[in-house]
Design a protein that fits this description.
alpha+beta, Immunoglobulin-like, 4-stranded mixed sheet, 4-stranded antiparallel sheet
Length: 176
Amino acid sequence: MSTRMYRLTALAAMALLSGCAASQINLNVKSPPGTNLGRPMYMLVRQVDPKQYANEAYSEVAAKVGAPDNTVLQTSVIYPGTIQRFQVKTPKEGALAVSFLFTAPDGNWQLLLSPPVTSAVDIELTVSRILNDSTPPALPQDEQAAPEAKPPEEGGFKMPEMPKEMPKLPGLPGAK
């Protein structure tokens, strides 16, 4: 199991053990200037069945922007070079999928939030994928703070280096 999957699984387990689910979720999306090659893109927040989510194609999800069904909770435009905040009402049943419709996705383009959903999620994007996410565990109303997280052990997960220069893609200005 990858370090990222382990981290997400551990966070989901902590959320399950902590009790209360939030009735709404605050999504904080950080989109650096080079995100999506500098072009705006759509974010789609949907209620999903985790089994169905695992088998969805990018084209199926993208089609819901123009023709939303009753699972779509929010559609928003994400602008590169911004930090945007959204409040989304959580459904009583099912998980949430937060999908980012990159022009040319390369890696994780969506995130699954299983119940009980936490009150806030920080998502950082990169050129063509979700760079990382920070999902704090859901806290019962009477608790004030989560326990301190331990730093990763020596030799743990390291973020890959970003390219110093963007690749030239055919059809774009400056491409050959």
